[in-house]
Structures are given as C-alpha cells and as structure tokens.
Amino acid sequence: MTALFEQGEHVLVGPGDDAAVLRVRTGHVVVSTDLLVEGAHFRRDWAEALDVGHRAAAQNLSDINAMGGRAHSLTIGLAAPGDLPVSWALDFARGFAAECALVGASVVGGDLARSDQVTVAVTVMGACVQAPVLRSGASPGEVVALVGRQGWAAGGLAVLGRGFRSPRVLVEAYRRPEPPYEAGAVAAQAGATSMIDVSDGLLADAGHLAADSGVAIDLRAGAFEIAEPLQAVGAALNVDPVQLVLGGGEDHSLLATFPDAGSVPEGWRVVGEVRDGGDQAGVVTVDGAAYDGPRGWTHF
Amino acid sequence: MTALFEQGEHVLVGPGDDAAVLRVRTGHVVVSTDLLVEGAHFRRDWAEALDVGHRAAAQNLSDINAMGGRAHSLTIGLAAPGDLPVSWALDFARGFAAECALVGASVVGGDLARSDQVTVAVTVMGACVQAPVLRSGASPGEVVALVGRQGWAAGGLAVLGRGFRSPRVLVEAYRRPEPPYEAGAVAAQAGATSMIDVSDGLLADAGHLAADSGVAIDLRAGAFEIAEPLQAVGAALNVDPVQLVLGGGEDHSLLATFPDAGSVPEGWRVVGEVRDGGDQAGVVTVDGAAYDGPRGWTHF
Known about the structure:
The structure is a homodimer of 300-residue chains. By secondary structure, chain A is α+β, with helices and mostly antiparallel strands. Chain A has eight helices and twelve strands. In chain A, strands 8-10-7-11-9-12 form a six-stranded mixed sheet, sandwiched between helices. Strand 2 of chain A pairs antiparallel with strand 3 of chain B, so a sheet runs across the interface. Chains A, B: It is an enzyme of class 2 (transferase).
C-alpha cells in the first residue's frame, strides 16, 4: 500500500523501516492527531472509501491550517475487521493520498491492525513561516471572520439522515470537505490574532476560541453567506439554513480574529466581533442574545 | 487528562490548541506510529490499565530506539467504549506518561473518540545525534548482536495462556516490557550497520532485517542467554526455552549488525552472523539450518 504514497524531497527515510526520517529546516514542527471511527464519524454505507480517505486527511490537514501552517508529512494507522475488502483499504489510501497531494504533503509511515470497527488514526506534521496562531490571542474590539464553506456538510448530513441524496453538492460536501488550505497561512501573515478550524460546530468552536482567549464573541446571523444549496435544503427540510451554518461542523472552515476589518484578507467574511469577557468569558451570542437553536449538526 | 502530561522545554505549544508546536534544533525528525487494539494486542483482564499505558508508550519509544535515536514527543489517540471506566483511562494515561518520562519525552497532543473496542494509536517523534540506522545496512561477514530481554514477554504470555500467574517476573515482562532505551543510540555511535526492534518475534524481525539488507542471517541457538525464569517456564510447560527466545516478540529488545565483534558495545551479546544472501536473501537460519520450531509467541 505504501507504493501509493509519493514521498516529498524532505523525506530522508520513507515508510518501511522502524521509523521515517524527515528533514526539518524550520526549527520547529507543528503536530496534531485525530481519530476517525466507523459508526461515530462515518458510515461505510454513506460514504465511499475514497471519500473517507479524503476526509481523514482533510480533518488533519485542517488542524495545521488553523495554526497558520502548512502540512508536510502524515502518518496513518488503520485498524479494520479481517473481512474488510482490500479494495476498500486501497481506495481509502488513494483518497487519503490525493487529499495530501493537494497541499504537497507526504504519507511517511503507518500501521495496520485488526479490529471489529474501522478506526483511522492520523498524525499530521507541518510548519509555519511565522509564529503559530493560537486559540488564545483574541482581544475585545477585534473582528471575527470566517473563510471556507460553512454549514454545507451539516446540510448534507441532514439530507442523508432523512434518506435523501440531494442536493447532491451538499451530500458531496459532507462526504468530502474542501478546507480552505491556503487561508490559514494567509491569515497568519495578515495578522490574525487567534484562529480555530470549525470541526465541532461553528458555535462550539467559537466558544473554544472565546474561552481560551478569555473573551466573549458575538456573531451576526445576517452576516453569513447562505449559499443557494443551503437555502434549498432549508426549504425542503423546513429548517432555517442559518441553523445549519451556526451549528454545522466538519466543513473545516476557519474562524479567526483580526485587529480590525481592514486587516481581514480577501476571501474571508467578517461575521462578528470580540467583546469583553468579564464573567462571560467563553460565551458566544448571536445578534447579542443567547442562541437557542439546535447546536448539533456534527457527525451523525 | 492533559494535566497528567508534563511538557518538556522543547514544547512551544502543548496540548489544547488545534496542534502542538515543538522546537526542533536537529534539522530532522524521526517519526513512527503504532496501533494497539484490545483483543488483538492486549486484554483488559490480563493487564492493568497502567501496564497497557506503559506498553503503548514502550512499543513506540522502541521504534525510535531502533533507529539509533531518542524520542522527545508523542501524540496519543484513544478510542474506547462509552462505558470504559474513567479510572481505566486515567490509569492508562498515567502509565503512558510514566513510560515516556523514562526517556524524557513529552505527550504533546491527543484525541479521544467513541468505539466498541479500546484502540490506542500512538505517534512518536525523536532525533538522532548521528545518521539513523536503517534495516538495510547489513553486509556479509558482519556479526549479529542482541541487547535487552528476549523471550521474557513470550514466556509471560505462555504462562497466562495456560491460566497461570507465575513466574511472576515473566508475567510482568509481558505486561510491561523494559526496552533498552539507551542501547540504540549507543549502538549507532559504535557503528551499527543495521538495526531493528524485536516486536514481531526474533526470527521474523531478523528476517525483515535480512530481507531489507539483501543478506541471510544465521543465529546460534547456544549464544542466547537463557535466564533462570525462562528455564523455569520451559520446564513447567515442557517447552525448550530457546523457542521462546527465537519466536518471542514484544520485549522490544534490539537486534543489530556490527562490522565485527570488537565493535559490539557493552551489554550487547553476539548471537549470529550475516551471510551472503544470494538467492537466499531474507532467509534466517539457526545453527546453519532451517528452524522448524514454533515462530509465534507474539500477541496472543
């Protein structure tokens, strides 16, 4: 299977030995790890192996993106039942490799094991060209901005959960997210003060950022782009599409804070502002009020 | 749980953000990943959580050892059933942290997920002070040497498999291996030409080394140390204890080749020689002949 994984020039020793060896010229490594478990994070009847491979890579690559970095290397552990079709594992590896190729990262090692449930464990390594952007740097008075699709995966999941297969573009967005891979480094260079990738849900992740920064965040419901497919699914399911945007995760959009609207890079959309935390640190409001819509449109 | 993990000075950003950030002064990173699955690699009724934590760390730290390196950072993914006792997870984390502390490595990140089976995914990062020692560097005429306990875990497993609990020292060796963590770097500096950690079984791993080097290896059955507990378990189970040594894995001893006996560091024991591969590359013999004893004393 390792033959599927092309090795970048920074890979001094690739897969097949006790360990891989990577050249690191930057003086640091940004590293993150994520699990993807069948039945909790994906269903084999809802997503092709190729898509699960893309998603497993994307959710990890996105963590480096959210630090303002670029990924260069990944390892992958695949635990699977003995009767898992070889074609599933190969398609998974192909999808994984294809997603990594989008950012020029190499799969440098892995492990296979037997288990009852397909479980994918990925570790990703990368580098920043400037100081990493943490969750903890937001200050009152700054603007909150978003880049990338948001709510699309949640829309696709809502569609699948009701037995439908369209709008197809949302189902595809759920199966295979398209994180804005260049946007993290661009934001870092533009002076983003804090950043997080949206994977648990926009409100939840805004809450993580606010809590770690000791601030409150107010989002403006009217500021979000409600793309046509989200409007369509909202109408079909009798759901306010803003709920999909606010509660949705798994698109791996980025949420960041900037000193002011003028420093927000192209492609980002200002969606709220940072407020003084006081005894409300970590609180996220929508249009100045507590949000009482559904928060959970993640996983399934 | 992250409060259990002390962070070394090289950790610029520890657990809790989208990714950790490590200072890397060496210009390279040695990286490996391993899975540990309940039912395949451990049983909760045969090993305490603390021991499983030690073992999960040890098997990964050993991979860096086998490159001639020293580990500095690890990430850990834990997928577990919802009814897993919190105390199990905490004890596991304590054991994992304690094992990492033996070599001064930090647990810098992790992920938790729900699954039916306890599955542990670990990635370890480290560095070498010299060129990494690969599996592929052995040449005919060199000597083969071993360091660390070998066969003890297999002995412990054989004991447990028959419903016994003693010799206790072997059961403990199975539950909590004690890899010779300093020996890899010492061997590299002494001029080891190839190296591997014994995890699949001594004969199997000697075969990996021989295959990757394009050589054959002949081991001398009489050269191995048969410690007293191995003799005892051999007598009790009516098994030649050399079988436990040759077939055993999971002690995470190191097997390496050196140019000659004079270059073998203290603590290592010469146990065989490298022979011309010819059309026999990858073949491992014992006392010049094919070995027909049991090869599998690994896992259970």
